[in-house]
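Q: what sequence does this backbone want?
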């Protein structure tokens, strides 16, 4: 690998990682509710999928628009 990012309670807008040359692996840990805080990826103009990264690795292609799914950032903690 060529990079590592560690975040706490990250909330970002949809974006593309322009320097990525391939997929990356994401992992999130914390006390946020199951089914929230995953990574959403736009597969095409009409399709968005959500990759569950809570306590597990998820493979995401950052060359597609992606963002963190909503979670309760005020009441919980999410590390990724």
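A:
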């Amino acid at each position: 690998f060529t990079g590592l990012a560690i975040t706490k309670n990250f909330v970002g807008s949809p974006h593309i990682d322009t320097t990525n040359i391939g997929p990356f692996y994401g992992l999130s840990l914390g006390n946020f509710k199951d089914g929230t805080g995953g990574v959403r990826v736009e597969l095409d103009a009409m399709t968005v999928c959500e990759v569950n990264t809570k306590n597990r690795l998820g493979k995401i292609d950052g060359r597609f628009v992606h963002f963190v799914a909503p979670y309760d950032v005020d009441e919980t903690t999410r590390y990724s």
